[in-house]
Write a structure and sequence with these properties.
The chain is built from eight helices and two strands. By secondary structure, it is mainly α. It folds into two domains: about 80 residues, 434 Repressor (Amino-terminal Domain) (Orthogonal Bundle); about 70 residues, Arc Repressor Mutant, subunit A, CATH 1.10.10.1930.
Length: about 180
Amino acid sequence: MSEHLIDGDGDGEPSGYAAEVGARLRTVRRQKRLSLQAVEAASAHEFKASVLGAYERGERAISVPRLQRLARLYEVPVDQLLPENLGQGAAAPARGAAGSAARGSDKVRIDLTKLKDTTGPEAAALQRFLATIQVERQDFNGQVLTVRGDDMRVIGATLGLGQVEMIERLAELGLLFRP
């Protein structure tokens, strides 16, 4: 089993990089609101809860193919499971939403679970745009995404619609989140 332990500097301690990868794995899993046991079940027991926990603690190395399969299971780009500084030993800088605050009245909540089941060129374009926002914000809960009015203007412009028309189109498609 020792060949699976990450030995950062020969003293048996996990490497800083392994701890950073583990922290990313844990963050994304928690954003998805999944327990270790739920991941084990969803992966048909490929990712045992104890092994996934060891990955998250930085005690065990994860191979690239397994990391790719875990990314698919979490429905996130594989690079989002890796720290930004790629093994420089320091803690990864915080990734997140852009610094500007959105005005409350401009926010639109989009139901991502319904969007997944929506087909057509509009839905495909919207899925790509919202996936970019999710990566930028590090928001992978996969259920609801709140977007700013400026984002709605850009989305609308790509589809030949104004901001208000775009929101109306989302309502027509049943994609506005209703708690």
